[in-house]
UniProtKB/TrEMBL annotation:
Its EC number is 4.1.3.39. The active site is at H16 (proton acceptor). CDD domains: DRE_TIM_HOA. Mn(2+) binds at D13, H193, H195. It comes from Hydrogenophaga borbori. This is 4-hydroxy-2-oxovalerate aldolase. One of its GO terms (molecular function) is 2-isopropylmalate synthase activity. Gene3D superfamilies: 1.10.8.60, Aldolase class I (3.20.20.70). The lineage of its organism: Bacteria, Pseudomonadati, Pseudomonadota, Betaproteobacteria, Burkholderiales. Residues 4-254 form the Pyruvate carboxyltransferase domain.
Amino acid sequence: MAKITFVDVTLRDGNHTYRHQFTPEIVAATAAALDRAGVDIIEVGHGDGLGGSSLHVGRAAASDEELLRAACRVVKRARIAILLVPGFGLFNDLEMAADAGVKVARVATHCTEADITEQHLRRAKDLGMFTVGYLISAGMASPEQLAEEARKLESYGADYVNLAESQGHLVPTEVAARVRAVRGAVKIPIGFHPHNNLGLAIGNILAAVEEGASFIDGSLKGFGGGAGNAQTEVAITALKRAGHEVGADIFGIMDAADVFSKQVAPQPMPVIDNDSILMGYANVYGGYIHPVKHAAERYGCDPRKLVLRLGERKVVAAQEDVVIEEAQRLAHGIRKAA
Ligand SMILES: C[C@H](O)CC(=O)C(=O)O
Ligand SMILES: [Mn+2]
């Protein structure tokens, strides 16, 4: 059975749920609890990664540096990771992170644009970091396309390739096909990052692991963009139940979930609401959950119809302007733009 490296993304992807308002205190308490539980890697930062704090996607309550230093200060065993989307994050941000004690750099881009990550992967490597090529919206690409992109990431020196199923759109057989294709194309390990729009995050993890994925992402209480991620405490328990080796311990991870939920109370836990279900169905990026709700309310259209239109237009991350455009069209009874 496989040895799994568990990557907890509560303190980064979960920041989407908390509208990027995590404080150094929340980060320190949660990172310490995850570390005690034996989680291998803990990702920290703005929901959109280094440099994400902006009017466009949401201002953070604390700087990247404050959050990262709070996490690095408390961990004894776990490695702290950052996510960096080139454009949001710059070389300076990587240098700051390395200086703060961050050991893992996950460089992310849309799943068909791996070439965007080359310079940042190489710079992170020069800074001595363990590097990850992170393909967003992996359910928007075919297994063959993902294999091709993974080959590029390997050639840029990535230590592993992470398939982020950002939309929660894929079913287990489709996840398996993608992991299999990537496994046949590269020698580096494969990671998987599910979202839970169709309630399949845990099943999809098991399918990915069966095909050889060995780095698995999850978040406490399922905190994460849109419908949320695979719930870490469930994922770890299910992986162990399926006979896989996971460093973190079950009671410890349950304690970490309790520590985290007390820190963020009374914030409700993510639920799979109607808009999230449709986003999973229509393959629409989870980061659009708040823009869709706002635009539907502002322009007076049905958010569900808006989600379906965005799916037909195959929007990718960072096209918030299209959300507004289609909401206006729907409100005026105009057909979708070509
Ligand atoms: C920037 C995104 O939130 C990255 C991610 O976690 C995903 O695409 O899923
Ligand atoms: Mn995510």
